[in-house]
Amino acid sequence: MITLNINGIDISVEKGTTVLEAAKMLGFPIPTLCHMEGLSPYGACRLCVVEIGEGERSKMVSSCTYPVEEGLKVRTTTKRVSRARKMVIELLLASCPQSKVIQDIASKYNVKQQRFRQEHEDCILCGLCVRMCEEQMVAKAIGFRGRGQNRSIGTPFDVKSEECRLCGGCMYVCPACQLRCTFTEPDKAICGGCANISAPCLDKDKFDDMMCYMDPCVACEIDKDCKAKEENKDVSHQS
Q1: What distance in Å separates the CA atoms of residue 26 and residue 146, rounded to the nearest whole number?
Q2: For the whole model, what pTM was predicted?
Q3: N or C: which end of the chain has fewer CB within 10 A?
């Protein structure tokens, strides 16, 4: 067994466990987009970044691909991590602004707008469809093609694959296929109208090195209850 520390809590897990899996065992929420149970880790979206180590030697890694180490210290919600995640969310929105999945993630992490030119590529290269086709459907009908900005997903030579059984597994896991109505202007790109999410407390002074990781946030819920009680008192006094 390997013992590590996540957000100040020690946990012992088996060798080969990823930081993401260990954090989930403790109930710490870490956003992921390219990760799915039953599929091999890929580390494409970088939403699951966490900070490991301490002081100047600390660094950020993708928790879905980083294996646990003896004595490893992990923090899942520092200011550095929060800034990185918000930047990644903005980039994802620029590539696929109408994705329901990405829209909900943006709302949850309080991203109000994205600052980049919208490309409407309808693919974020998360690789879920490729891994689903190969690992679960055992077909390998689709795969990655090209490199860099020319990288894409499809069948070899764009020819209809004889291996494809039209199972729909690739569409089922694809975040770009789950669309939501939204504006096309960058300043109105994030809807969030369908999401019922409490405001996070990341900007509060008491959270410096570690942000609040509660979901829902206890502080926000208490503040909400206090405001509701004050409003009820005002109404009773008026009556």
Answers
A1: 40
A2: 0.73
A3: C
What does the alpha-carbon distance between residue 129 and residue 34 come to, in Å, rounded to a whole number? 10
Cα 145 from Cα 5, distance rounded (Å)? 40
Domain extent at residue 211:
198-239
Count up the domains in the chain and report the number: 1
108 lies in some domain: no
Give 226's contacts (C-beta < 8 A, 6+ positions apart).
Answer: none
Residue 112 domain-assigned (yes or no): no
Higher pLDDT, 183 or 131: 131
Q: 145: which 2 tokens?
A: 């093609």
At 131, the amino acid letter reads R
Q: What is the pLDDT of residues 182-234, one digit of tens each?
A: 555 655 656 555 544 444 444 444 445 555 555 655 555 655 566 666 666 66
Q: Is the residue at 91 inside a domain?
A: no
**Is residue 33 in a domain?**
no
pLDDT, residue 209, reads 57
Q: Which residue(s) pair with 60 in the sheet?
A: 51
